[in-house]
Amino acid sequence: MKLRLLSIPMLLGSLAVIGCQTPPGYQAMNSNREAVTRPEQVVDFETLYAHNCAGCHGEHGQNGAAIALANPVYLAMASEADLKRIISGGVQGTAMPAFAKSAGGMLTDQQIDALVQGMEKSWSNASQLGEVKPPAYASTSKGDAAHGQAAYGTYCGRCHGSDGAGIADKHIGSIVDPTYLALVSDQGLRSVIISGQPVQGMPDWKSAKVGDATHVLTDQEITDIVAWLASHRVETPGQVYQH
């Protein structure tokens, strides 16, 4: 039997054709590699919120351990600059961490912008506020704890108890407990008083009740109430014995 030898040109041509053929599955693998998005490239609001915020602020901005973000009053009170500053640098002394890479976090400035813009687009609603605008985000005056105690008793005691220790029958816990106060800043207390907690039935600053009447809390009343609450903080919260 004679073997048929290929000529050099024919052999080279055959190798060239084989070499140009794509191995099975290679194109799909390469396509998948190109589709991979690096963490710092994610700018989708829902994805960023779910991975960075939902654990504390709730799946849809509500019903979390921290303040509700899906609250038009809160978003009207806190400016975009306030939100960016809080997300970027966190809140010292609380469980709110810094998320900006420049502060040791994992998010880029573009991602923080996407979070802020997503909150505004998804949850802000100026029409719910009416003509009464919320007080400034941060207090501009010094609070008086004695006046705050009186204001608290008038506007808050019916739900939180006359001494702030809560009402067991209503399943409302203490808001003067040192452990709770160690986890929330003065600004956090102010924000909750102004924006309320609609899902839990807590009214905002313009819907405080005095009997059957509605009262709009003044900026100073809010500042004084925060001062009274803050006066219940201790240096070593949660410790039974002091050393």
From TrEMBL:
PROSITE patterns: CYTC, PROKAR_LIPOPROTEIN
Signal peptide range: 1-19
Cited InterPro entries: Cyt_c-like_dom (IPR009056), Cyt_c-like_dom_sf (IPR036909), Cytochrome_c-type_DH (IPR051459)
Superkingdom assignment: Bacteria
Keywords: Heme, Iron, Metal-binding, Signal
Keyword Ribonucleoprotein: no
Record domain Cytochrome c: where: 34-123, 143-233
UniProt name for this protein: Cytochrome c
Annotated source species: Acidicapsa dinghuensis
